[in-house]
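REQUEST FORM: STRUCTURE PREDICTION
Request ID: SP-0412
Submitted by: Lab K.M.
Chain count: 1
Length (residues): 574
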Amino acid sequence: RGARGETGLVYLGICGTNARRVVHVNRPWFSTFAMWSPEETARHVRDARRLSIALVGLLTWWGAGRLAVGPAFGPGGAVFAVFVVLFSSFGAGRVVQRFPPMPALFGQLIAGFLLRNIPGLKQSVGDAVDARFSSAARTAALGVVLARAGLSLDVKAVYRLRWAIKRLAFGPATAEAVVVALLAKPTLRLPWAYCAALGFLFAGISPAVVVPSMLQLQDHGFGVTTGVPALVITAASVDVVYAIAGFGIAASFLPGMGAGGAAAAAWRAPLQIAGGAVLGVVLGKILGVVLPPDELLIDEIKGAPGTTKGGAGEAGGGGSEENENNENKNKPIADGYGAGARAFALMAVVSTALFAGARWEFSGGAALASLVMSTAAAQSWGPKPAKATGTLLNLVWAKLGEPLLFGLIGAAVDVSRLKGNVAGYGVLTLGCGLCARCATAFFAAGGGKLSVKERLFIAIAWTPKATVQAALAGLPFDAAIEVYGRGSPEAYRGEILLALGVLSILITAPLGAAAMAVLGERLLDKDPEFCASPRGTPRQSVDSRRVGVSDPETGTQDVEVTEDEVKLGRGGSF
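STATUS: Completed
RESULT:
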C-alpha cells in the first residue's frame, strides 16, 4: 500500500548480476487521460518553479542595476546588452545540456548569434554591445582557457606517450592548416597572412567536447584495453597548445597585430616563440616560489622524521617522539596559500601578459607564455594543489567565462555584413580541411596495436571545434577595428575569420559529439572486466580514474584522468 492509499504489486527479478524491481501501481481512473505521469508532472512543476524564481531574480537585478546605473542599463544601453547576452547564453546552455550529447556551448553560441541578427533584438542588444568591452572580456576568457589548459597538461603523460602524441597533435593539425590556407586563397581571396591564420584557427580541436565524450566511453569500458581514452585525452591538450601557438605566430603578420610589416613579423615570430617560452617558465617558477601551497607545507610537517609510526621515533620511546613534536611546533612555518589565492594570482599574471601582449603587439608570445606559465606553476605546486586551483578555474569558467565568451562571440557576427558566397566557400574549406585532418589522424594513430576501427574512431574524435575558435576568432577583427576602423578592408577580412570561426563551431561541435557517442560503442572494443556491475562499469573512486594499457605505443604506464577533466568538459570549455 502506497503513501496515498494506492495498492500495488512489487516484483523482484534476478537475472545474472542485475536486480530489477518493478512496481505496478493501481492509479486512479482519470490519470489515464493525463498527458504526464505524476512523477513527470512533479518534475515539470519543479522546473517551472525554478524558472519562475530565476526570472524574478533577473528582473530584480535588472531593476537594481537600472536604478544604480541609469539609462545604460536600459534597452539599447551597453551594460544592459552585456547583461542580456550573459544570462541568455547561460540559460540557453542549460537547456541544450538536457539533450546529450549536445554541449552547452552550442546553445550559448546560438543565443548570442540570435541576439545580434534578429530584428528588434539587434538594435536593443546586439548592436549595443561595446566593442572594447567585448574584446577585453574575450581576452580575459582566453586567459582562463590558457590557464586551465596549462594546469591540466600532464607533462609525465605527455612524455610517456610522446611518440604517439607527436603524430596525433602535430600531424593532423598541420595538415588541416596547410589545406585550409591553400584553399582559402583562391576561394575567399584573402591575403596569405589571413589564410595562414585561418588555417591554424581551424586546426585546434575542443577538449570541451572530446574529453567528456571519451570519459563516458571509458566509464563503460570501451577502448580501455588499448588505451584509446588516455591517448586521445592527452594528445588533445597538446593539440590545443600547438594550434594556439601557431595562430599567434601567423596572426603577427596581420595588419594591426604586428608593426613594421611582413619583414618585422618574420623576425618577430621566432622571438615570440623563444621569448614566450622563457618568460612563461620564469613567471611560472616565480609563482611556485612566491605562492607555496598550504597542502605541501602541511604534508612536510606531518612527514617530518620521528612523526611516522614504526620509525626511529617509535623505537626511541615516547619521550623522543614528544620532543620532536615540540620541535615541529616551534619551527617557523612559512605562509601557505590556498587554491583561491593561487587561482587569483595566476589569472592576474596571465591577464596582464595577454593585455600587455595585445598592447605591444606580442599576442602570440603572450599566449604561449601564459600556457607555459600555468604548466610551470602546476609543476612547482604539485598535483593536488594544481588540481584544486584548476577546480576553482573550472567553476569560474562554467558560471561566467564560458557563457560570456560564447555569447559575445556569437553576438559579434553580423550576417548582413557578409557576402553570400563567404559562408559557402567557408563550409567547403572547412570540409576539405576536416577530410585532410581525419585522414592524417587515421595514419598517425598507427604504429602500435590499435585496430583499424579504433584508428577510425580517433580520426572522428579529432573533428570537434569550439573553445579555441571562440577565443581566437575575434582577435584579428578587434585589432583591425582599433587601428583601421570598422568599415576598412582589414576589418572586413577580420570579420570573415570571425564568422568562419563561429561557423566551424556550429557545424563540428554538435556533429562531432553525436558521432563520438554513436560510433564509440561500435568502433571500440569493450573490456570484459567492465561488465561486472549493472551499469557496465566497475566501482571507481570519485577523485580519479585510471586507464590501464598494455601497448608501449599508446602508453604502457597508467595515465590518470582526474575528475577535474570531467568538469572541464561538462562545465564547458577548455
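NOTES: The chain has a mean pLDDT of 77.
Reviewed by: T.R.
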